[in-house]
Design brief:
This protein is mostly beta strands. It is built from one helix and 63 strands. It is elongated.
């Protein structure tokens, strides 16, 4: 590439340019027109000639005055009337530049004046028909801009971060305002939108924090995502009658907005569209609205009344969540789905009628609506989502229609005013904790024809009454006997019961579920039968009145935090077959002094005895796996008043002999006697053995000489 100087020497501008410095340029010639491609001079005051060597200068090329590190020396550029094009990044990072655009300019390229912070006023001539994306991005000292009627579109980021810009008029010729076009123009107080505008792009006016009022003309059909998000000074918005879609987050965090009317043309209000518009007191929804997006009006804390029109079929997740001022909601007759947490934490809503059109109530849909006293559930609802009415502490009645098939976990959790529940024959699935912590619930009644569930004396069971699902917390009486048919005490079955002091568990029970007796604070006595094989996580958590527990030999596993917080528990006896003890199983059992193991040392989780600082772990001599500590607590041999045969350890036929371990935490001798007939009780000594370390192994090599032989032990 040759410079102008190389071809015809140094260009000297006379007359008009008498006070200007000589300028040096690089350029290209194409089709009889010159494009300036670079500037090699040192002067900050530059004049571009209108012609050179007989050819007109028509274009400032891409990156002609570009500086990646910032050009501080260039202060002024005079463009001739011959210029029709200013290329991409032509004056990029020319921080001190001032320029006047001639009436000949047709195109301004992308990032052409990016970060030109010396620009204070922009008059874009009527000749311009295209402005590239980010053309004036971060020209943060620009106070005024004149947009010509020749433009049909304002591109993406064109005036983004022009933080001194105060007023903008979009001419009627413009049909599209691009994404981020006026993003973060924090001084912008007024915007006039032209009558032919069709689309407002994503984040077009986001974070224009001083913008007070906007009228969206009737020509506009779409308001993009985040279009006016975080316009915290916006007090009034008029939405034109042709808008069909309000984008996600469109007016998100417009905290001073007080009234909104959604015109009948709108079919969709996007997710988070009016999220946290905390000043919003009234919203009118148009008659053709179909979808209310997730979190559309979440945290509009002053919104008092909402009527959902009959056109709406779906209310999105968290659509009105935490609208704490909402006292009344009217649901249209065609709503099919109420999303997760749709009205969660609307603490002042007193009553709701769910229309017959609704089939699904989402998880936590009305969670923590603590002022809700009455709810009518429509006849088409098939699913009550998990936690759908959890924490509705004022809810007194809930009639579950015959259409409901599943009730999700925690559905009515902590409905402390609920006194009774009747389950129709349609219900075949109930999630864990569905009716937990309902302190005034006296009885759960199940339709006699229900194929999956049944009730007895107000207690909820599965159909065959082999699983106890829920014992109502409001049921009177201090003692309860679990029916003999029960084999499983279900998850959370007695959760939070503070009335029962004793519970009889029948011999047929094999499993005690997670949190089965969680926080049964008055429970002083419970006997675990020797049919139980597992004790679930937190099964007896915070049973603060429980003093002693014996875990039978049938149990193989004690779950995490099984007895955590049992602060009155003094002693625990653990059966011979327990193989594992979960994390924090006896955490904060602050009165616990002795844990007595009948078998080998089990595997244990972390912090089994955390906070139980006075406990000693006792084991029977002859069992294995014990060291000086267990679960970071000291161990000691378990002294019994009499010797003991360990029936679970090396007991039976071994290497042509019958043998067993005798345990006694002394070093005294023990006599083993044999007998062939208990009727005659003719016992005779077989051997006398001295105990070493509190145990010895007895082996009878002659046992095969007898049709049967019985053994007993005694001191000499």
């Amino acid at each position: 590439m040759k410079s102008l100087r190389e071809i015809f020497g140094t260009l000297t501008i006379t007359a008009v340019l008498a006070t200007q410095a000589h300028a040096q340029f690089t350029f290209t010639t194409n089709n009889g027109a010159i494009t300036i491609t670079g500037y090699t001079g040192s002067s900050g005051d530059v004049v571009i000639p209108d012609a050179t060597n007989g050819y007109p200068v028509t274009s400032i090329g891409d990156g002609a005055f570009y500086s990646s590190s910032g050009n501080y020396s260039l202060t002024n550029v005079m463009l001739p009337n011959s210029i029709t094009n200013i290329g991409d990044r032509a004056f990029y990072n020319c921080y001190r530049l001032t320029v006047t655009l001639p009436n000949s300019v047709i195109n301004i390229g992308e990032e052409a004046f990016y970060y030109c912070t010396g620009l204070y006023s922009l008059i874009i001539p009527d000749s311009v028909n295209h402005i590239g994306d980010s053309a004036f991005y971060n020209c943060y000292n620009v106070r005024t801009v004149v947009i010509p009627s020749s433009l049909t579109s304002i591109g993406n980021d064109v005036f983004s971060d022009c933080r001194s810009l105060t007023n903008v008029t979009i001419p009627d010729s413009v049909t599209n305002v691009g994404s981020n076009a006026f993003y973060h123009c924090t001084a912008l107080t007024n915007i006039t939108l032209g009558s032919n505008l069709v689309t407002i792009g994503n984040s077009a006016f986001q974070s224009c924090t001083k913008l007070a009022s906007v009228t969206i003309p009737n020509s506009v059909t779409s308001i993009g995502n985040y279009a006016f998000s975080s316009c915290s000074g916006l007090t009034s918005i008029t939405i034109g009658s042709s808008v069909t879609d309000i984008g996600n987050y469109a007016f998100h965090f417009c905290t001073k907005l007080t009234n909104v009317t959604i015109p009948d043309s709108v079919t969709n209000v996007g997710s988070n569209a009016f999220y946290s518009c905390s000043g919003l007191t009234n919203v009118t929804l148009g008659s053709n609205l179909v979808t209310i997006g997730g979190s559309a009006f979440q945290s509009c804390t002053k919104l008092a009344n909402v009527t959902i029109p009959n056109s709406v079929t779906s209310i999105g997740d968290s659509a009105f969540q935490s609208c704490s001022g909402l006292t009344n909601i009217t649901l249209g007759s065609n709503v099919v789905t109420i999303g997760d947490t749709a009205f969660g934490f609307c603490v002042n809503m007193a009553e709701v009628t769910i229309p017959d059109s609704v089939t699904t109530i989402g998880s936590d849909a009305f969670n923590s609506c603590s002022g809700l006293t009455n709810v009518t559930i429509g006849s088409s609802v098939t699913n009550l989502g998990g936690g759908s009415f959890a924490g509705c502490s004022s809810l007194r009645t809930a009639t579950i229609p015959n259409s409901v098939i599943t009730i999700g976990p925690y559905a009515f959790y902590y409905c402390t005013s609920l006194s009774s529940v009747t389950l129709p024959n349609s219900v075949t699935g109930i999630g864990d904790y569905a009716f937990c912590n309902c302190y005034n619930l006296m009885a759960i009644t199940v339709d006699a024809s229900n194929p999956a569930f049944s009730s007895g004396a107000g207690v909820l069971f599965n159909r065959n009454q082999t699983t106890l699902i829920q014992y109502p917390l409001g049921k009177t009486g201090s003692y309860y006997t679990i029916p003999d048919s029960v084999t499983t005490v279900g998850t959370g079955a007695f959760y939070g019961n503070s009335t029962l002091s004793g519970i009889a568990i029948p011999n047929g029970v094999t499993s005690i579920g997670n949190t089965a007796f969680y926080s049964c604070t008055n429970l002083t006595n419970v006997t675990i039968p020797d049919t139980v094989s597992s004790i679930g996580d937190m099964a007896f958590y915070y049973c603060t009145s429980l003093t002693n527990v014996t875990i039978p030999n049938s149990v193989t596993n004690i779950g995490d935090s099984a007895f955590d917080g049992c602060s009155s528990l003094r002693t625990v006896t653990i059966g011979a077959n327990v193989a594992s003890i979960g994390d924090y199983a006896f955490e904060f059992c602050t009165s616990l002094t002795g844990v007595y193991f009948q078998g080998n040392a089990p595997s244990s989780g972390s912090s089994v005895f955390q906070g139980a600082n006075s406990v000693t772990v006792y084991y029977l001599p002859g069992t294995t796996g014990w060291t000086s500590t267990f679960g970071e607590r000291p161990t000691a041999a378990w002294f019994l008043p009499n010797p003991l045969i360990l029936s679970q350890h090396s007991f039976g036929v071994e290497t042509n002999a019958f043998g067993f371990v005798v345990s006694w935490a002394t070093n005294l001798s023990v006599v083993v006697e044999g007998c062939t007939n208990l009727a005659t009780s003719n016992w005779s000594p077989i051997s006398t053995n001295a105990l070493t370390s509190g145990w010895f192994y007895f082996s009878d090599l002659d046992w095969t000489n007898y049709p049967s032989r019985l053994y007993r032990i005694r001191s000499p």
